[in-house]
């Protein structure tokens, strides 16, 4: 006699899938051969059906419909990205911030911003960064600051949501992970030892239970490529541009030299941040030329 249960793939290890069942139990499964025939591959974050036979052996038998599948290695059903931006080492960059926000807007994923390493700069420098980030809060991106907001982040994760960390290399994603999930090092270390692979490095994706949902530990979002975005759709991924565009004179306005452009009017009035518009123009050039800027390679 077999029974079928639903669950979430929380880890992929040497061809096995670790699944957290809705009952709270975790099982290690293999995927049925039907996935190879259909050219499907389960990803961490997938909601799946697991079948347990009379011997107690578990098999992953079905992938339930996905919301999305992003990154390399991929995470499925990402509800929210926690974007880690450093104040220093590497230096705070609005240009990189806008790249990430545009990319995840294109992917249809909500983003919150977390400022790391704020204790390494002066009060004056921090106030300048906070002034910049206040604009992003105004257009709809929640902003968290180091230390005092860690518990607030955990409480923000809703039941069943999958959050993932993103940000440039060295921004402090691993440090934040260890603050959010204090046993993360022990968990990843135990997995590495069980596979006899020595010290853990983030090459695979793993989901940790956090709050009422999950947090993905993944190497997949340290750099991004915007060139697949369609040029005439780019403006839709700047949230304040999209909101303003309903008042533009022409439908499909690209906010360049068109008359009656609401975005250009708000830019002139200082209600749209100049650096955002400059980054929009730079991204248009990048997409039209079909290549990532040299400084990002």
UniProtKB/TrEMBL annotation:
<comment type="subunit">
    <text>Monomer. Associates with 30S ribosomal subunit, binds 16S rRNA.</text>
</comment>
<dbReference type="InterPro" id="IPR031944">
    <property type="entry name" value="RsgA_N"/>
</dbReference>
<keyword id="KW-0342">GTP-binding</keyword>
<keyword id="KW-0862">Zinc</keyword>
<dbReference type="InterPro" id="IPR004881">
    <property type="entry name" value="Ribosome_biogen_GTPase_RsgA"/>
</dbReference>
<protein>
    <recommendedName>
        <fullName>Small ribosomal subunit biogenesis GTPase RsgA</fullName>
        <ecNumber>3.6.1.-</ecNumber>
    </recommendedName>
</protein>
<feature type="binding site">
    <location>
        <begin position="167"/>
        <end position="175"/>
    </location>
    <ligand>
        <name>GTP</name>
    </ligand>
</feature>
<keyword id="KW-0378">Hydrolase</keyword>
<comment type="function">
    <text>One of several proteins that assist in the late maturation steps of the functional core of the 30S ribosomal subunit. Helps release RbfA from mature subunits. May play a role in the assembly of ribosomal proteins into the subunit. Circularly permuted GTPase that catalyzes slow GTP hydrolysis, GTPase activity is stimulated by the 30S ribosomal subunit.</text>
</comment>
<feature type="domain" description="CP-type G">
    <location>
        <begin position="67"/>
        <end position="224"/>
    </location>
</feature>
<feature type="domain" description="EngC GTPase">
    <location>
        <begin position="76"/>
        <end position="222"/>
    </location>
</feature>
<dbReference type="Pfam" id="PF03193">
    <property type="entry name" value="RsgA_GTPase"/>
</dbReference>
<keyword id="KW-0694">RNA-binding</keyword>
<keyword id="KW-0963">Cytoplasm</keyword>
<keyword id="KW-0699">rRNA-binding</keyword>
<keyword id="KW-0547">Nucleotide-binding</keyword>
<dbReference type="InterPro" id="IPR030378">
    <property type="entry name" value="G_CP_dom"/>
</dbReference>
<dbReference type="Pfam" id="PF16745">
    <property type="entry name" value="RsgA_N"/>
</dbReference>
<keyword id="KW-0690">Ribosome biogenesis</keyword>
<feature type="binding site">
    <location>
        <position position="253"/>
    </location>
    <ligand>
        <name>Zn(2+)</name>
    </ligand>
</feature>
<dbReference type="InterPro" id="IPR010914">
    <property type="entry name" value="RsgA_GTPase_dom"/>
</dbReference>
<dbReference type="InterPro" id="IPR027417">
    <property type="entry name" value="P-loop_NTPase"/>
</dbReference>
<feature type="binding site">
    <location>
        <position position="255"/>
    </location>
    <ligand>
        <name>Zn(2+)</name>
    </ligand>
</feature>
<keyword id="KW-0479">Metal-binding</keyword>
<feature type="binding site">
    <location>
        <position position="248"/>
    </location>
    <ligand>
        <name>Zn(2+)</name>
    </ligand>
</feature>
<feature type="binding site">
    <location>
        <begin position="116"/>
        <end position="119"/>
    </location>
    <ligand>
        <name>GTP</name>
    </ligand>
</feature>
<feature type="binding site">
    <location>
        <position position="261"/>
    </location>
    <ligand>
        <name>Zn(2+)</name>
    </ligand>
</feature>
<comment type="similarity">
    <text>Belongs to the TRAFAC class YlqF/YawG GTPase family. RsgA subfamily.</text>
</comment>
<dbReference type="InterPro" id="IPR012340">
    <property type="entry name" value="NA-bd_OB-fold"/>
</dbReference>
């Amino acid at each position: 006699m077999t029974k079928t249960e639903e669950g979430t793939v929380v880890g992929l290890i040497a061809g096995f899938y670790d699944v957290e069942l809705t009952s709270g139990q975790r099982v290690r499964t293999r995927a049925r051969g039907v996935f190879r025939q259909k050219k499907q591959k389960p990803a961490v974050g997938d909601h799946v059906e697991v079948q347990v036979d009379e011997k107690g052996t578990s098999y992953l038998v079905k992938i339930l419909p996905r919301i999305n599948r992003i990154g390399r290695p991929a995470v499925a059903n990402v509800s929210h990205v926690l974007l880690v931006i450093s104040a220093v080492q590497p230096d705070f960059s609005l240009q990189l911030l806008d790249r990430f926000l545009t990319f995840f807007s294109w992917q249809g994923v909500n983003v919150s911003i977390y400022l790391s390493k704020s204790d390494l700069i002066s009060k004056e420098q921090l106030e300048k960064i906070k002034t910049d980030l206040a604009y992003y809060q105004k257009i709809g991106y929640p902003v968290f600051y180091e230390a005092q907001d860690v518990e607030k982040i955990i409480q923000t994760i809703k039941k069943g949501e999958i959050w993932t960390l993103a940000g440039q290399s060295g921004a402090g994603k691993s440090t934040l992970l260890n603050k959010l999930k204090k046993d993360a090092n022990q968990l990843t270390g135990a997995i590495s030892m069980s596979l006899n692979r020595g010290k853990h490095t983030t090459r695979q994706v793993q989901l940790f239970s956090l709050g009422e949902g999950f947090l993905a530990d993944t190497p997949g979002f340290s750099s991004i490529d915007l060139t697949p975005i369609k040029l005439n759709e780019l403006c839709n991924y700047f949230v304040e541009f999209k909101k303003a565009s309903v008042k533009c004179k022409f439908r499909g306005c690209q906010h360049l030299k068109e008359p009656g452009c609401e975005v250009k009017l708000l830019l002139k009035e200082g209600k749209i941040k100049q650096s955002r518009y400059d980054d929009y123009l730079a991204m248009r050039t990048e997409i039209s030329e079909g290549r990532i800027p040299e400084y990002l390679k």
